[in-house]
């Protein structure tokens, strides 16, 4: 099992499948819960589950480490668990997954601007190709072209950028911390604010849990939290630390494929442009995964 977890391509695929399925799960939970409840539940329960590791780990860290833990968690975990449910009230689960394909180009650009990290030209080419594919899908995924749709799509793009910054912080500032302690600390750090929001969101008072539809949505939310939010973060941080933020960000180029498949199965629209955009995204993945002989990219 340890040998399997050390295989970066295996981790890449597993994380992509789990996170690619998150958007359809969010869609299913939105039938009962609002974005505040979904985001606060995910962040709060994750913090509770990991507090027994996170708090002891933080006590052993320096103040500088704790600062970066808090910032990485704010940008890549706390804010985005609210952003995506808010956007998915108006945007399909397929499109929400597709927007994640913008993450690699954010990562490449921000790596240069914030940390002076340089990538090889072929990686920039791959990111641009994948970005073009994502733009095609975004442009053709909604026939209304309304201002509201544009605003919610922009919100998703902001979320993608926050993910990229968080991944870079993990790579450059927190690489010396074990992945289990890192993930646990990030969720434990934001546990109390999340539980406070959940307490005031009406989650415990305004929801009728005697209804089968409510229990079904709660089941989706629990799975989304325990597996897609909590468990997979261990794998993601391990991947970032074992490779790089740029390599890990290619997960976001595979996520749209999974998200679109779930969208089709759930009756969401599929056109020829989905195929065109998907092919460009996969080409982008190939170029970004290209590496120098004997070295990771």
Descriptive report:
The chain has 297 residues and is mainly alpha-helical. It has one domain. Helices cover 77% and strands 0% of the residues. It is built from 16 helices and no strands. Helix 2 packs parallel to helix 15, helix 4 runs antiparallel to helix 5 and helix 9 runs antiparallel to helix 16. The longest helix is centred in the last third of the chain and has 31 residues. The protein is globular, with a radius of gyration of 19 Å.
Instruction: Summarize the amount of helix as a percent range.
Output: over 70%
Largest pleated sheet: none
Strand-residue proportion: under 5%
Which oligomeric state applies?
single chain
Q: Which H/E pattern describes the elements?
A: HHHHHHHHHHHHHHHH
Shape: globular
Number of domain units: 1
The count of helical stretches stands at: 16
Whole-Å distance between the termini? 25 Å
The residue-averaged pLDDT reads 83
> Radius of gyration over alpha carbons?
19 Å
Poorly predicted runs are 143-147, 292-297
What's the total count of β strands? 0
Specify the structural class. Answer: mainly alpha
